[in-house]
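Researcher: Sequence of diguanylate cyclase follows. Predict its structure.
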Amino acid sequence: MRLENQVWESKYHEAVERLTREEAQWRTAESLLRQLVACLGHIAHGAHDQVDPHIERLSVALAGPMEPLALEPLVNELATAISALGERSAGNHEDRSIAITRPHRNEHGSSVQSSLSRLVERIVVLPRLADRANELRHDVADAGDLVALAACGDRLADLVNEQRIGLQREIDALQAVLRHVTNRLDEMSGYMSRELADQSVGEANGQALDASVAHEMRLLGEAALEIDDIHELREQVNHSLETIAFCFRDFRDRESARLTAYRERAEKMRQRIEQLETERNTLQRSLEREHELAQTDTMIGMPNRLAYEKRIEAAFENWRTDGKPLGIAAIDIDHFKSINDTYGHTAGDAVLRIIGQALMKHVRPCDFVARYGGEEFIVIFEGAEEAEALQVCERLRGKIQHLAFHASRQPVRVTASIGLAYFQAGDTPQAVFNRADLALYTAKNGGRNRCVMG
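Model: Prediction complete. Tokens:
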């Protein structure tokens, strides 16, 4: 029981540490968002003198540790000012300098949209926020101007902040559970201490009884030597026997009371342990479910980037130990943006689901496949030689090419490019992923719908 409790306590500590690390990641993401908004402000600064003061105040606020709730009024003021300019532009077609529409998107706007899109794809959100993150991803892709991108950036900042708050709540909840379990363990420890003390009391009672009987027997022996009158001796014997009988009754009563109290404490502790077991099982199921959801892409129903990162970390440790071949394949759907633009995001999501399910179906049972983000998937090959893994990649590429897609009653041709890289001496998971990603873009630059070894 004690060992099992130690195991669970260790798991709770690990969970708290994991959530703390994730919170740190979200703080980093929040910092990147601040930089992104500052970049947007820098691009827009000088566009109109009525907007510049709002941009300057927002830039100053972003440079400090101000909370999102405090930033919200500044963002709203900027949005109101931009909206007013847009209304003026609509009423005065000759004032081209203040119009912010799709034709005014320049290379800066495209760069911001690309950066924001990558940031949305890279983050791993809590399961309950997955739908909002997916909706935001679509809105970033559809954003036609800097105003829309700024609004998306603001929503992403809110999403990151809500994620951070949610993670803190999970940390607090786990710490509360840990305190509860610690109190229960302290209670059990106290119970054991009381039982040890009670055992000492029982031993002391027995020793006192032995001493009383020995004392009376000694007095009786002395009387037998000194008393000649048989009647007087009989009285002394009866007195000693009564005294001994009293000692035994007192001992019995004390032990009976002690055993009764022991049974009551034991029953109470049994109930406590039973309750703790129930709570532990409930918590275990809850943690397992949350852990499963946190590592699942809810739209496709397959492992997500977080699951990949945990799996590649374990696979990397195994590779360093046993040296068996280990590779990573990066898979990206070709021209996926044009599918979204032509047929809509619903069709794009359907393509992602069908391809994700096909990948899970056609990899080897020992391989691991996950959605890395956006239209990119990733496969981990453990124990497979490079040639075998390349064959699997070619098979996957062929399966994707021959999948039947239809949108608006029209066939849609979908292909994928794949980059494969293997671990070598001195490699890290990130280094191998970068090589696989580079091989993927080599495949795209070489005509797409092909596999390239990195």
